[in-house]
Specification:
heterodimer; A: mainly alpha; 2 domains; 78% helix; B: alpha+beta; Double Stranded RNA Binding Domain; 4 domains; 7-stranded antiparallel beta sheet; 6-stranded antiparallel beta sheet; ResB-like_domain (chain B); transmembrane (chain B)
C-alpha cells in the first residue's frame, strides 16, 4: 500500500471515530434522560395517594442500563477506530505519530479512551462515560482544527528525546483530564449532597468523597509524570535542539505554571488538609493552565513550540 | 487583651519570630506558590529580551507610549525582575523555614520507638478483634511476620502483651529529599545564570569564526562571566547542507540541515572535522556549538563607473519565513563618484506566472535563485561613527536611483548574470552560497539542575506512594467456661496519610493474621 493510501485510511478512521464517539455521547445523554424519567415517576407515585410506592425503577432501569451499555460499546468502537487511525497515520508518515498538534490530540484522546475503558472493565466507572465522551469530542474537534497532512518530521523534532518528552507529557495530560473530570463531577454531586437532593442522574455517580479521592490519586500520579516530561525530558531535549535547557519560551512558561499550580494542589490536599470544594477548584485551575500550555500557547502565542501552524 | 495592643507590645525579637512563623506557614507557602504562577504569566504574553530581543524592539515601535511603562516595571525581562525574584526568594526562604525543623523532627522520629497503643481501639479509623486458641507468643510472632519490615516493639503491659509497629518512614524522607532538591536546582540555575555566556553568529560557507566577542552578532553573558576569557576555539564552515522535501504533501518542509565544519579546539591544535546537525551540537571545551538556522548568501560583485571592482563578497540575506524569501542589503562605501547602497530580496525558487503577476518564490531549495534589488546613491552614513546594522540601509542622505523610464531602477539577477547600472558600472550575481547560524553557549553546572530534578522526582514519588501506618496488636489470655486457655486479640490500625479513612486492607490483614496462627481454631471475631 502506498503512503498516501495509509494517510487516507487514517483520515477516514479519524472521522468515523469522531462520529461514533458522538453517538456514544448521545447514548449516555439518553441514559441520563431516562434516569431523570425514573425520578419523575417516583414523584408521581409518591403524590398519587396512600398506596405504598412500588419500586418504580423496574420498568425504566433496564432502559437506562441498556443505554449505558450501548454508550460503552460505542466508545469501544470509537477507541478501536482511533487506534487504527493512529497506526495508519504512523505508517503513512513512517515515524511515531506524535509530530504535531493534530497527531498529539489524536493519540491523546486514544490514550484517554483506552484508560477510561480499562477503568470501566476494572472499576465499573460507566457513570463517567458521558463526560469522557464529551471531553473526547472536544479534544478531537480541537485536533481537527490543527490538521496537517501526514509527513516526515522537521529536523528539530528528529530526536529520541522527542518521543520520551511527548509521551510523558501526554500521559500526564490524560491523567490531568481524568482528575479534572472527577473534580467537576465532585463539585456537582457535593452540591446536591449538601442540599440533600441527589437526583436520579447524580445518583448514578459515586459519592462525592469517592470522587474527591479519585481526583487526588489521579493527580498524584500525573504530577511526577509531568515533572519528568516537562521539567526533565523537555529541558534535556531543549539543550540539544536549541542550545539551552530552559529559556522561558511561552510553552515552557506555561508548563512551569501548570507544575506550580499542581504542586500547590498537592500541598493543599496533603498538608493543609484542603479537601473537597477548595481542592477541586484548585485542581480545575491547574487543568485550565494545562489546557493553555497544551493548546492556548500554540493558538495565541508564538515561540519555538509553534509547530501548530 | 485585644490583638492590636498585643501587636504594639511585641518586642523586635518577638516581631521577627512572628514574621518568621507567618512566612513559614503552609498558608503563606501556598499563597506564594500561586503568586509565582501568576507572576510568570506576563512573560508569556509580552516579548522577553532574553528570548527574542528583536520582538522587544518591534514592540517598542508598535507601542511607543506603553512600552516604556512596561519596561519600567520589568515586563520585558520578567524572570530576572526584582518582583519575580522577590517571590521565589521568599518562597525559598519559606521552604527552608519549613524544611529545617522538619529535618530535626524526622531525625528524632527515626530514633523514636513506635508509640504505645491507644486505650480505646474503637476510636481508631480501623480496628478488629478475634479470639483464638493460639498462645500469646504465637500471635505476636505471627504479627511480626505479617508486618514484615515495619519497626516493631513488643511490650508487656498491665493488660497483656502489646505489639507496636510503625512503617512508612520513607514518605517523609522522600518529602524532605524533594524539597531539598528544589534548592539544589535553584543553586544550579543560579550558577548557570551567573557564569554562562550565549551568543549567536552567522558564518558563510568558506568563512571562519574565532570565539572572540567582536565576532558575535548577538552576545549575552552572566554578570560574573568575563567575556575576555572566551575559550579560544575556532571553526570554518566548509559546507552548509539544507535539504527540503521536493514532493509529497509536505513539499518544501525541511528534511536536513547540516553544517560541515573544520574546527580547532585550541590554537595550534590539529584541525578536526565535524558535522553539526540540529539536535547534534559540537561540544568543545568551554562551549557547545548548535546549528540553529541557515539561509542564503549570494556573492555580489559591484564595479563602479571607473571600472574598479569596489565590492566582491557574499552577502547574508535574512530569511523572512519558511519559504526562505530573504531580505538583504549591499553597502558599497568605496564606489566612486558616490557611495552606493542596494536593498532588496532573495528568492530561492522564483516563479513568475505572467508579465503582470508578481514574481514569488515557491520552494525553499535553490532551484531558480533570483536576487532583486533597488539602488540608492549618496552618503551611507558610515563615517560619523554611529554603529549601524549591516542588515538595514540608512537612506536619510541617499537618493533612490531611477531608470530611464523615471521609475525606480530594478535589478533582477540570476547566478552568473551581470546588469549595467545607470551612471556607469555594473552589478553581478557571481555565485550562490549558504550561511549557517550558530548559537554558541556554555552553561556551567548544567548537570546540577538535572541531578536536582531527577533526585527530587524520586523523592516526590516516595512521598506520594509510601503510606505510613501504625499498627497495634494486643493479646490477652483468658480462660473460658470449658477451662480452655484462650487469647483475645485486638488489632488497631492508624493510617497517618490519609488520616480519617478506614484502612481498606484491614479485613485482609485480620484474615491473614488468623491464618498465620498455628491453630486456625478462631472462635469469634468482630470488626469495626
Amino acid at each position: 500500500m502506498r503512503l498516501e493510501q495509509y494517510a487516507q485510511i487514517s483520515n477516514y478512521a479519524m472521522v468515523a471515530a469522531t462520529c461514533v464517539l458522538a453517538l456514544a455521547f448521545v447514548a449516555h445523554v439518553a441514559e441520563w434522560a431516562f434516569a431523570r424519567k425514573v425520578v419523575s415517576d417516583e414523584k408521581e407515585l409518591v403524590t398519587s395517594g396512600p398506596t405504598p410506592p412500588a419500586p418504580p425503577v423496574e420498568d425504566e432501569a433496564p432502559v437506562t442500563e441498556r443505554f449505558s451499555r450501548v454508550g460503552v460499546t460505542l466508545t469501544i468502537l470509537a477507541a478501536t477506530l482511533l487506534v487504527a487511525s493512529v497506526i495508519t497515520r504512523g505508517l503513512a508518515a513512517e515515524r511515531v505519530p506524535l509530530g504535531n498538534m493534530y497527531e498529539f490530540g489524536l493519540v491523546g484522546v486514544a490514550v484517554a479512551l483506552l484508560t477510561y475503558l480499562a477503568l470501566v472493565w476494572k472499576y465499573q466507572v460507566q457513570w463517567a462515560g458521558g463526560v469522557v465522551a464529551a471531553f473526547g469530542l472536544v479534544m478531537l474537534g480541537m485536533s481537527l482544527s490543527t490538521y496537517v497532512p501526514a509527513g516526515p518530521l522537521v529536523p528539530a523534532l528528529d530526536s529520541y528525546w522527542f518521543e520520551i518528552h511527548v509521551s510523558a507529557v501526554m500521559l500526564a495530560g490524560a491523567f490531568f483530564l481524568v482528575g479534572a473530570a472527577a473534580s467537576v463531577l465532585y463539585l456537582i454531586r457535593a452540591r446536591a449532597e449538601a442540599k440533600g437532593n441527589v437526583g436520579a442522574v447524580l445518583r448514578r455517580l459515586p459519592a462525592a468523597a469517592v470522587m474527591d479521592k479519585l481526583a487526588y490519586r489521579v493527580n498524584a500520579m500525573a504530577f511526577p509524570l509531568w515533572t519528568f516530561g516537562a521539567l526533565i525530558a523537555g529541558p534535556i531535549w531543549a539543550h540539544y535542539a536549541w542550545g539551552r535547557y530552559w529559556g522561558w519560551d511561552p510553552k515552557e512558561v506555561w508548563a512551569f505554571i501548570t507544575w506550580v499550580v499542581y504542586a500547590g494542589y498537592l500541598h493543599a490536599r496533603a498538608t493543609a488538609g484542603w479537601k473537597g470544594r477548595r481542592a477541586a477548584i484548585f485542581c480545575l485551575i491547574g487543568f485550565v493552565t494545562f489546557l493553555f500550555s497544551y493548546y492556548g500557547v500554540n493558538l495565541f502565542g508564538s515561540g519555538l513550540h509553534s509547530y501548530a501552524k | 487583651m485585644n490583638p492590636s495592643t498585643q501587636a504594639s507590645e511585641l518586642t523586635p525579637r518577638q516581631f521577627v519570630r512572628w514574621m518568621w512563623r507567618q512566612l513559614t506557614s503552609m498558608r503563606t507557602a501556598l499563597f506564594l506558590l500561586l503568586l509565582l504562577a501568576v507572576a510568570a504569566v506576563p512573560g508569556s504574553l509580552v516579548p522577553q529580551r532574553g528570548v527574542d530581543a528583536r520582538a522587544v524592539q518591534a514592540f517598542f515601535q508598535d507601542h511607543p507610549t506603553l512600552a516604556p511603562v512596561l519596561d519600567a516595571i520589568g515586563m520585558f525581562s520578567v524572570y530576572s525582575s526584582p518582583w519575580f525574584s522577590a517571590i521565589y526568594l521568599l518562597l525559598m526562604l519559606s521552604l527552608v523555614g519549613c524544611i529545617v525543623p522538619r529535618i530535626g523532627v524526622y531525625a528524632k522520629a527515626l530514633r523514636a520507638r513506635p508509640p504505645r497503643a491507644p486505650r480505646n481501639f474503637a476510636r481508631l479509623p480501623g480496628s478488629g478483634s478475634f479470639t483464638t486458641t493460639a498462645s500469646v507468643d504465637e500471635v505476636v510472632s505471627a504479627g511480626r511476620q505479617m508486618l514484615g519490615r515495619a519497626r516493631i516493639d513488643v511490650v508487656q503491659t498491665g493488660n497483656g502483651t502489646e505489639l507496636r509497629a510503625e512503617k512508612g518512614y520513607l514518605r517523609e524522607l522522600g518529602n524532605l529529599v524533594f524539597h531539598c532538591s528544589i534548592l539544589v536546582v535553584l543553586v544550579g540555575v543560579a550558577i548557570g545564570a551567573l557564569w554562562s555566556y550565549r551568543g549567536a553568529v552567522m558564518v558563510t560557507e568558506g568563512d571562519g569564526f574565532s570565539n572572540t566577542l567582536s565576532q558575535y552578532d548577538e552576545f549575552n553573558s552572566g554578570p560574573l562571566y568575563d567575556p575576555d576569557n572566551l575559550p579560544p576555539f575556532g571553526l570554518t564552515v566548509d559546507r552548509m547542507i539544507a535539504e527540503f522535501h521536493s514532493s509529497g504533501p509536505q513539499m518544501g518542509a525541511p528534511r536536513l540541515f547540516q553544517a560541515d565544519v573544520t574546527y580547532t579546539e585550541r590554537p595550534g591544535d590539529e584541525p578536526q572535522n565535524y558535522e553539526i546537525v540540529v539536535n547534534n551540537p559540537l561540544s568543545l571545551d568551554g562551549g557547545d556549538v548548535f546549528l540553529i538556522g541557515q539561509g542564503y548568501a549570494p556573492v555580489i560583485r559591484v564595479t563602479d563607473a571607473n571600472g574598479e571592482v569596489v565590492f566582491d563578497d557574499a552577502v547574508i540575506f535574512l530569511p523572512q519565513d519558511g519559504t526562505y524569501l530573504s531580505e538583504g542589503v549591499v553597502k558599497v562605501p568605496d564606489a566612486a563618484p558616490e557611495q552606493l547602497g542596494f536593498q532588496g530580496f532573495f528568492m530561492p525558487t522564483a516563479v513568475s506566472t505572467g508579465d503582470d503577476a508578481p514574481t514569488r518564490t515557491v520552494y525553499p531549495g535553490a532551484v531558480n535563485p533570483v536576487v532583486g534589488l533597488r539602488m540608492w546613491s549618496g552618503d551611507l552614513g558610515l563615517d560619523d561613527g554611529t554603529p549601524q546594522s549591516v542588515y538595514t540601509l540608512q537612506k536619510e542622505q541617499m537618493t533612490e536611483v531611477l531608470g530611464d523610464d523615471g521609475e525606480p531602477f530594478n535589478i533582477s539577477l540570476s547566478p552568473g548574470q551581470v546588469q549595467d547600472l545607470p551612471g556607469g558600472g555594473s552589478i553581478e550575481f557571481v555565485d550562490l552560497q549558504r550561511f549557517a547560524r550558530f548559537q554558541i553557549a556554555d552553561v556551567p553546572a548544567k548537570s546540577l539542575p538535572l541531578v536536582g530534578v531527577s533526585v527530587g522526582l524520586i523523592g516526590l514519588m516516595a512521598s506520594l506512594m509510601v503510606r505510613p501506618r501504625r499498627t497495634w496488636i494486643t493479646a490477652t489470655t483468658s480462660t473460658d467456661e470449658a477451662g480452655r486457655t484462650l487469647t483475645s486479640v485486638n488489632v488497631g490500625v492508624l493510617d497517618r496519610v490519609p488520616r480519617d479513612e478506614t484502612p481498606i486492607d484491614l479485613d485482609a490483614f485480620l484474615r491473614d493474621l488468623q491464618q498465620a496462627l498455628p491453630t486456625s481454631n478462631n472462635l469469634k471475631e468482630t470488626q469495626t
